[in-house]
Every structure is written in C-alpha cells, then in structure tokens.
Amino acid sequence: MTTDVFAVLAEPTRRQILDRLRVADCSVSELVGALGTTQPTVSKHLRVLREAGLVSSRIAAQHRIYRLDLGPLRLLDGWLQPYRRLWTRHLEALEQHLDRTAEREEK
Q: Residue 84 gets which letter from DSSP?
C-alpha cells in the first residue's frame, strides 16, 4: 500500500463515499445521487480510493459497481489500537477521580 490512507481519508467527500459504501455497494450514479455532487467529482474520488485499496469495483451490465475493501481500514484500525488503549486508561482514571471527588463532596 503505497498511498497514505490518512491523506486519502482527510478529504470529506471520500469519507462520505466510504460511509455510503459501508451500507451497500453502489454504482457511480447512485453515489452521485446520494452525495449530491457531479459524476466527474465522484469518479475522481473513487479513483483515489481505488488506488489506496479502500474500494474495488466490478462490472455489472454497463455499470461499474463499487464496494468497500476493508484491508487498509483494518491496518489503520490496528495502528489506532494502542491509542485507544491509552485514551481508555486516561478516561478510566478521570472517571475514578470524578467519583472520588463526588464522594468527598457528599460527605
């Protein structure tokens, strides 16, 4: 994977496309209708998403149907996991601190 997934996902329209594909596979025209943007714009973003490995396509009659590919997202999720644990520890410590503070104030 040569494309930086973070850079690809930084663009809001690309995230909207992924959100839509999370629900169902779509043709370009369905994505255009769902996003309210132009076909060239959607096609441009789909090309970037395809190059990043985030989507793939298949031909159905005269339409290209796009689907979400989870591989790069799984890698991203794996990279984020240690940060989630860090935040969970900090939030748990905050919760304990607030509970102790509330108990002291009740006395």
A: H
Multiple choice CATH, 5-69, 3.40.50.11890, 3.40.50.261, 1.10.10.10, 3.30.1130.10: 1.10.10.10
Place 3 in a pLDDT band, splitting at 50, 70 and 90. Answer: low
Contact of 53 with 3, CB cutoff 8 Å: yes
Segment 16-45 shows an average pLDDT of 96
Strand order in the sheet with 63-68: 26-27, 63-68, 55-60
Closest CA to 31 of 72, 63, 53: 63
Bridge pairing between strands 26-27 and 55-60: unpaired
Q: Where are the domains of the chain?
A: 5-69, 71-107
